[in-house]
């Protein structure tokens, strides 16, 4: 059992929700990014939306980018688009297709492809950008897990399991992991955002599932917990290599994340910023010198500031509920190691 979760402030809840729609303007911009010659970054879900902009901005700074996507054809098309937009770079873009987190059997082969591409080069940045925000609560993975939990939580942690031996090496001073979260974590369950009895809702009739945004909120709370728990579980190696693991809320934006939301997806381009601004948020987490090893689990909000998450999430970092969730997920994904 977890420790009883503290209550959270409705005023802070409302403020953080409001801030997601009216954030401050970005201050850490491409002109401030370091030269990334010789560095390698992995970006998941990078054939469209925020991920595609992240790839372009990293490549513009001479980074070697590994774009991890579900559909290889779409990934290659996004690569060609990036090469045209950024004609001069000393970096590279490689595409790894077939990594669909709705079937966890896909993750190990994708990780092997990444390993083959890396060879002996340092792995500097990992951005777990791929995500699913479904307008309905009926989605189910190939393994019978609730779709958003499989895509947003289990898949990234499984991929990270395979990347850890490649990442946790003292071969370069730049070591960053970004777990993409959201102000949606505020909508998660009352106990640290998680439905502890069965977070995957496996074997639960769809008619008994909570509404879609509660399920989404659970996954975004989980990403916050993962960002801190990963650093705790790997503390010795993390301290040795100087790795920093943070959670980033890119912003409430008009991107392909809402492509299945019909009317909402049509309206958002007129009222919200586009995916480029989300890339600014994620790259603050990946590159800003403001973040150090003292900031494990920091909650980066748009477009490059650090706020505090919901009060019970903060408590989880202290009482070990974050590590408990990480261990629960690790047990579930261990059959795919």
TrEMBL record:
Keywords: NADP, Oxidoreductase. The keyword Transcription regulation does not apply. GO terms for molecular function: oxidoreductase activity. It comes from the Eukaryota. InterPro entries: NAD(P)-bd_dom_sf, SDR_fam. Belongs to the short-chain dehydrogenases/reductases (SDR) family. This is ZYBA0S03-01970g1_1.
């Amino acid at each position: 059992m977890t420790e009883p979760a503290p209550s959270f402030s409705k005023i802070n809840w409302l403020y953080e929700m409001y801030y997601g729609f009216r954030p401050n303007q970005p201050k850490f911009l491409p002109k401030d990014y370091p030269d990334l010659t010789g560095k390698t970054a992995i970006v998941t879900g990078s054939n469209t939306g925020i991920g595609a902009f992240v790839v372009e901005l990293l490549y513009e700074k001479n980074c070697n980018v590994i774009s991890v996507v579900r559909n290889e054809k779409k990934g290659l098309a996004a690569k060609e688009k990036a090469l045209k937009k950024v004609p001069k770079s000393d970096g590279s873009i490689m595409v790894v297709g077939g990594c669909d987190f709705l079937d966890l059997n896909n993750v190990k082969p994708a990780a092997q492809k990444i390993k083959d591409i890396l060879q002996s080069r340092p792995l500097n940045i990992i951005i777990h950008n791929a995500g699913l925000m479904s307008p309905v609560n009926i989605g189910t993975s190939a393994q019978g897990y609730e779709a958003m939990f499989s895509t947003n939580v289990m898949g990234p942690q499984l991929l990270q399991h395979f990347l850890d031996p490649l990442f946790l090496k003292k071969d370069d001073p730049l070591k960053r992991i970004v777990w993409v979260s959201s102000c949606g974590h505020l909508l998660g369950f009352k106990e640290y955002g998680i439905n502890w009895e069965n977070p995957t809702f496996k074997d639960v009739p769809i008619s008994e599932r909570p509404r879609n945004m509660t399920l989404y909120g659970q996954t975004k709370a989980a990403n916050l917990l993962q960002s801190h728990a990963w650093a705790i579980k790997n503390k010795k190696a993390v301290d040795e290599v100087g790795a920093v693991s943070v959670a980033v809320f890119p912003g409430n934006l008009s991107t392909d994340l809402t492509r299945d939301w019909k009317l909402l997806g049509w309206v958002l381009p007129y009222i919200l910023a586009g995916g480029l601004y989300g890339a600014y948020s994620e790259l603050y987490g990946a590159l800003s010198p403001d973040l150090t090893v003292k900031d494990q689990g920091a909650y980066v909000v748009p477009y490059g500031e650090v706020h505090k998450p919901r009060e019970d999430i903060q408590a989880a970092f202290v009482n070990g509920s974050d590590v408990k969730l990480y261990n629960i997920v690790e047990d579930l994904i261990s059959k795919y190691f």
